[in-house]
Amino acid sequence: MNVTINKIKLPCDILYTINSFCYNNLGYTFVELQEINKYKKKGQFQMKRIKVELYYWKSTGCSIGWLKPIRNGRCKGAYLDKKHEINEIREAYQENRL
Length: 98
What we know:
By secondary structure, the protein is mostly helical. The protein has two domains: about 35 residues, no CATH class; about 50 residues, no CATH class. The protein is built from five helices and two strands; from the N terminus they run H-H-H-H-E-E-H. The chain has a two-stranded antiparallel ribbon with strand order 1-2. Strand 1 and strand 2 form a beta hairpin. Helix 4 crosses helix 5. It is elongated and about 65 Å long.
């Protein structure tokens, strides 16, 4: 769309006004913004999990040694097991930390 608009010989201020209807301030079209919002919603739960884990890690006062890979390149993380993770997420929702 931008190529088509630039081929029309019009003054710069008119071209700017036409472009402002097609693109936002960051240069994204409406369709691109919809895709970005879809991906944000898709990864929202994972980001909340990370936020709760970081909050728990900060409250424990441990070093970042738990981030080092244990075996097969997998990281252990701050939790002891899945049940511990679920309990921490549940507590975070009850205390409105999310």
